[in-house]
Hints:
mainly alpha
Amino acid sequence: MNSQEAKEILLSYRPGVDDAKNPAIAAALHQLEHDPELARWFEQLQQTDAAIRRQLRETPVPFGLKQRILAEQKIVRPDFGWRKPAVIAAAAAVVVLSVLSAWIIQRSASNG
């Protein structure tokens, strides 16, 4: 594994959450021991992530935010017409007529 591959794996690594028993993560963490530049990069990444987490924890959540979000959420499901009884009845009629026509044509061909 080269340093670039290790960086790509370590970018998604979350200490305390991700399991270091994962072979790719374990190999990337092992690479840190042999690559001082990669180790410095990883340390800086961890410090940046910690600063971002700290800032997010300190940011106050506006009162009633969850209720406002849920109140504004409108789930719109497109209606493709599959549930309309008239469409279902028409589709069934087409299938029945097709089967009946095929049966009549086959029967007349075998009699003739």
